[in-house]
Amino acid sequence: MRTIFHVDMDAFFISVERILNPSLEGKPVIVGGDPHGRGVVAACSYEARKYGLHSAMPIRDAFRLCPKGIYLHGHHKEYVRFSRLVRQFLEDKFLLVEQASIDEFYFDFTGCEKIYGHPETFARNLQKEILEKFLLPCSFGIASNRTIAKIASDFRKPLGITYVPPGKEKEFLAPLPIERMPGVGKKTIPILNARGFKTLNDIANSSTEYLSVLLGKNGIDLWNRANGHGSDVLCRDNERKNVSKETTFEEDVVSKTLIEQYIFDLSSKVCQLIRKEEWVASTVSIKLRYSDFETLTRAKTLSHPTDDDKVVYETAVDLFRKAYTRRVAIRLIGVHLSNLNHFYDQEELFEDEEMLRKRLLKVVTKIRDRYGFSSILVGKGGTR
């Protein structure tokens, strides 16, 4: 049985902002931009959470609840820089580290007890070292699989450490409400609640047959996880598993033509990001949020990985046209690239025209890096 650590940086964006500006310490801080705009809260300090704030809520609602809070646009480059520092720090200590997001990491502690001692003792020392070295607080979840470790890391924030001994997984999960299980979303909760499922113990003591009828294959997966089972496999994956850009409109939009223009702009921006790091994407997704806050996503896996604005745009627009079926204005649109891998410049693998376009896009990327994104635009058929 393996020992998996989940490291969750506590209020990461806020912690970085306080490193950059120590006067923010102890104050209600919200990262999300203009409090009178139409954006959402990206992060908020624990002081702000006392007023009922949480990430992903409309920033106007946050301002209504906490008008005296300090609202920041944030410093994304600094978040990335500190994230990389923490990742490198962990990789210097452990052979197998997986970055799950900008502020979450897994590492495999299996067999390290002889070197570092008991997992809880080691976690306390590591937590102290990260705080002293980077001024970043973090919490740890320690368990035999990823799911339990992730849930455990959220238990005693900030600066929490929760260890679930092998064989105690089901007991640990039993009293928790079903929404504590990753992947159980807003649509699933009412379905389960209506049938008497309130806790993970209720799920664990149900039958796979019933849950399968209720939720399909997701029901079986939920039953397994509620019984403490889960993957202990970590990937020596690249730092960035996905890239996304989205826009919340100042006023809700009904014009398909305008929305498709935004999709074109977002497609160009996500492709610019992956080309800078020599990635190619195998999956293109869109995110669509209506004015009544109903949100949907659609995805398509490509036959060949790409970093081409044109390919991503055409795929994203096709997904949008198929998904936009309601006569309701749109509040937000996003383009998402995932299943990323490094691109190696093997010219013999491409047709002459395709290779020429790849070279062109490399030049476009360099020009934008030097003179700004808007200095050159890649049209749907070329550049301008």
Please provide a brief summary of the model.
The protein has 384 residues and is an alpha+beta fold. Helix content is 41%, strand content 21%. It has helices spanning 12-20, 46-49, 59-65, 76-93, 113-116, 119-134, 146-153, 169-173, 188-194, 200-204, 208-215, 217-226, 256-276, 309-323, 352-371; strands at 4-9, 29-31, 43-44, 70-72, 97-101, 104-108, 138-143, 161-163, 242-253, 279-290, 295-306, 330-342.
Structure description:
This protein is of the alpha+beta class. It has 3 domains: about 1-165, Reverse transcriptase/Diguanylate cyclase domain (Alpha-Beta Plaits, 2-Layer Sandwich); about 170-225, DNA polymerase, domain 1, CATH 1.10.150; about 240-375, Dna Ligase, domain 1, CATH 3.30.1490. Helix content is about 40%, strand content about 20%. It has 15 helices and 12 strands. It has helices spanning about 10-20, 45-50, 60-65, 75-95, 115, 120-135, 145-155, 170-175, 190-195, 200-205, 210-215, 215-225, 255-275, 310-325, 350-370, and strands spanning about 5-10, 30, 45, 70, 95-100, 105-110, 140-145, 160-165, 240-255, 280-290, 295-305, 330-340. The strands form 3 sheets. It has a 5-stranded mixed β-sheet. Strands 9-12-10-11 form a 4-stranded antiparallel β-sheet. A 3-stranded mixed β-sheet has the order 3-2-4. A hairpin with a 4-residue loop joins strand 10 (about 280-290) and strand 11 (about 295-305). The protein is globular. It starts with a strand and ends in a 13-residue tail after the last helix. Residues about 345-355 have low confidence and may be disordered.
